[in-house]
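Final report, Chapter 2: Outcomes

The project's central promise was a pipeline that accepts a single protein chain and returns its three-dimensional structure in a standardized token representation, suitable for archiving and comparison. That pipeline is now operational. To close this chapter, we reproduce one record exactly as it appears in the project archive, with the input sequence first and the structure output second.
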Amino acid sequence: MQTVSSDFLTLRSPAKLNLFLHILGRRDDGYHLLQSVFQLIDWCDTLHLKRISENEVRRINPIAGVPLEQDLVVRAAKLLKDFCNFEGGVEINLQKEIPIGAGMGGGSSDAASTLIGLNAIWNLNLSTETLCELGLKLGADVPFFIFGKNAFVEGIGEKIQEIALETPHFLVIFPNQGIATASIFQDPELTRDHAQIKITIDGFLASPLLYQSNDCEAVAMRICPAVKQALDWITKAVPGSHPRMSGSGSSVFAVLDPKTDIAKLENLLQNLPEGWVGRVVLGLNKNPAYNLISSD
């Protein structure tokens, strides 16, 4: 649901899945070079933005355990406010549904929606390109969510190319143990020499099933055994589904065959191990906030 008024805006912030994740190398500044295909899904947070006359960024119901200076929606609002020297303010209320530390980009999506939404209710009229440049200061995945469409992503996340994907159902499980991204990318055993692939008719688009690996998965399973347990759960529940981890984890997923009995699978999800969260979700073509930044 998306509602807009001159002073109030509600946006859905979708999660994403990495259909694959290859790490090609590492730059001198420590950032890793990657290739991935990002698929938007309808597992969403809900962001409420209210324009206020006071010259401040006001956070309602902050996330427990997350200091405001680390809260991505607060950082996004302050970054945009400072960039534009905007003298008004905003009241932010974020309803979290996407698990934190799951590798599905929830925080990045929330930050992107904050930039997109404030650009609208503050009447800033910044371009998508400018918003993406600002978003990159907040995190490598933020520009993708601002871009708003499924994409082949390269570099450190800033090279984004639209890609047409089917929108199947996915089974996604979060085993209730977040993994710090830094712990994955700093691990000495992380694979960092994956061969570059082409996003062409003779590359990924020709045989997407050949590109199902995640170079972070082996390290994640060692750091967080629950990742392997979740992968095994999906393999048992949906034989032949080839589950894999998304991003730097710890969520895992599988693409579901159109013939999958969704109702039966959702019944199985009622018996997940305690604390785990699982959903059958649908792929999206666009970020629900996309129409605020484009007339496409």
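Archive annotation: The first strand starts at residue 3 and ends at 4.
This record, like all others produced under the grant, will remain available to the consortium after the project formally closes.
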